[in-house]
Amino acid sequence: LYKCLTLVFLSFQYSVTFAQPPQIDSLIDQLGEAEAFHELGNYERDENKNFTKAMGWYQKSLELVQKTDSVEDLAMLFNSIGLSYKADEDPENALRYLLKSLKTCEEHQLKKLALYPLGNIGGVYERLKNFKKAEEYYVKSYEASKIYGTKKSMLIDLNNLGNATSALGKFKIARKYYLEALVIANETNDKSYLAHIANNLGAIAFLQQNYEKAISYFRDALKIREEMGEQEDIPSCWSNIGETYEAMGNPHKALEYLTAALELAQEINSLSDIMNTSEVLSRVHESIGNYKSALQYHHLSTELQDSLFSIENQKQITEMQTKYETEKKEKEIKLLSQEKQLQAAELKENRIMLFVFAGGFLMVVMFSFLLYNRFRITHRQKKIIQKQKEVVDEKNKDITDSIRYAEQIQHAILPPEEYCTQTLSDHFILFRPKDIVSGDFYWVHETLSGKVIWVAADCTGHGVPGAFMSMIGNSLLNEIVVEKGITTPGKIFDELKAGIISALGQTDALGQSKDGMDASLCVWNKKNNQLEFAGAYNPLYLLRKDAANSNLKNKGFKFHSNDLAELKADRQPIAFEEGKDAPFTTHQIQLEEGDSVYTFSDGFQDQFGGPKGKKFTAKRLKEMLLSIQEKTMPEQKLILNETIEEWKGEDEQIDDIVVIGVRI
């Protein structure tokens, strides 16, 4: 349904408009030669679509403008030439001249004029389907419009930003841009744009499968276009509503609107609307078993596709013929004027050519010998490099295959989702390894006495080294809790620390390994809702309504708001560290129904990104958790994952991430 989206490009408009072909003499008297030629180029481009004639006028204007100091005229002339190339389907030259226009504006501080090439560069990238680049320039154009532009230019930029972000699949952001554009369109009472934006919002809702809202927006667009008497746009509105009913599984309602759309399209002879609507009608009739009608509409759509293709081809042939004849006449004139000069220069050139040929022949022989010799050397080097590359590629493949197998092993030792749901009930676990295998891991176990124990651990390093540490940690936790039956958090960490020091042979000797892990561990007694906690550098967040005035006061909690309490961890790792060998502290908390408990590694809050490339920070994480408390746990996981992905953007994920949330 992307045909619903209406793309609008920002182009500069001069004050002189033409109801009929302009008279050159009167235009020159009114504007002066340079600006008159510029306007004549715009007329040929916009009214006659004769891009060859347009470029002729622009070239004459350019010759005059370059003799003056008018950088404003030069910038806008480059902009117009770029738009002409864009209309002539020559994006490479379009970008070249639009960037020249932008460079001129930037070099001479023409900030008000810069918004024109900025928006038009975005339009060229949009045409090239480079939506990321299009978004970049539309944002710059919008920022310029807010300072130097008009309500209309801001409206155009917001609409274009909505289109670019829609094409990138960022529907939430696109909808925000369209809604901002809608406010301006209402303020300026721009009916045409109100219809465009309602149409685009309907398309976004359709793509998000919010069909009721999509129909509402499409009806708004239809109502405005009926009020404006824009008959040529009404068939597409009806067709969009019909296609939405089809997606909702209501084929009879779909047929009602699609049939009306086709009848009006045939009445006004809108071939593209007839073709598109016939295609949808064929599909709907087929879905209800009416194969005869489905076939008829399919034939109609196919015939129109062929017809439109033929019309377009004929149009292109006519344009090419016009361009060829114009260029041919211009070349004949140039040839006649140059013929005398060529005759005079021909004798002189013949004498020079004799000497040049002799010297050139000698240089070619020498150069050929050097080139052949160099080719032989390069060919040998290339064969050696290719063999080396094949060896390296094979080794890289072996290493990657081994790591992939390690990934399967690591996932096998993590507790299954079904077991976590059975033991933790209302919960989520967000697990995002930086590399194929992870140094972060989580561990869940329920004892026979009804205690649920979970751990969120962050091992030293990430990737393969971190994964080895995570497997040691997992194995030791099974031994301590499952085999030995220890369920007190502080004692579990004491045993885990001793096990890691022993497994890695850690001492205070210089150069010895200091590898280990930071972690948080919770033991929840389901019978009395008592929670025990121990932390090694990593804290616990508890969210509760009016937490600051509850039984959590004077229990070691730090309150960051009325509803969020933080229980600090011990400032020591689960590993050997000189001077840090005190037993881990066990904290006891009486939970209440509706409490949400969060434990995590530092990967989420340390991720770089955002508009300034900074860390996400613990403060933002707390604010986010407060803002999503009304959501279910699965919804919270989705929001956290989308937020960190959007924050990261094109940057690399810097560390493994694990976040565990449990609602009591």
How is this structure best described in words?
The chain is an alpha+beta fold and 664 residues long. It has 20 helices and 13 strands. The protein has helices spanning 24-31, 33-48, 51-65, 71-87, 91-107, 111-127, 131-148, 151-167, 171-188, 191-207, 211-228, 234-247, 251-267, 271-287, 291-413, 417-424, 463-483, 489-504, 618-627, 633-648, and strands at 427-432, 440-446, 451-459, 517-525, 530-536, 540-543, 557-559, 564-567, 587-590, 596-600, 608-609, 614-615, 657-663. A 6-stranded antiparallel β-sheet has the order 1-13-10-6-8-7, sandwiched between helices. Helix 4 (71-87) packs parallel to helix 6 (111-127), helix 5 packs antiparallel against helix 6 (111-127) and helix 17 packs across helix 18 (489-504). The longest helix has 123 residues, at 291-413. Mean pLDDT is 86; it is low at 1-19 and 309-324.
Which CATH class of the domain at 415-663 is shown? Alpha Beta
**What's the mean pLDDT score?**
86
Strand content: 5-15%
Count of individual beta strands: 13
* CATH-defined topology of the domain at 415-663: Phosphatase 2c, domain 1
Number of helices, counting only DSSP H or I runs of 4 residues or more? 20
Largest sheet: 6 strands, antiparallel
Can you identify the CATH superfamily of the domain at 415-663?
Answer: PPM-type phosphatase domain
Low-confidence stretches: 1-19, 309-324
Shape: extended
Structural class: alpha+beta
Q: Compute the CA-based radius of gyration.
A: 35 Å
How much helical structure, as a percent, in the residues? 55-70%
The side-by-side strand order for the widest beta sheet comes to: 1-13-10-6-8-7
- The appropriate CATH architecture of the domain at 415-663 is 4-Layer Sandwich
Q: How many angstroms separate the termini?
A: 44 Å
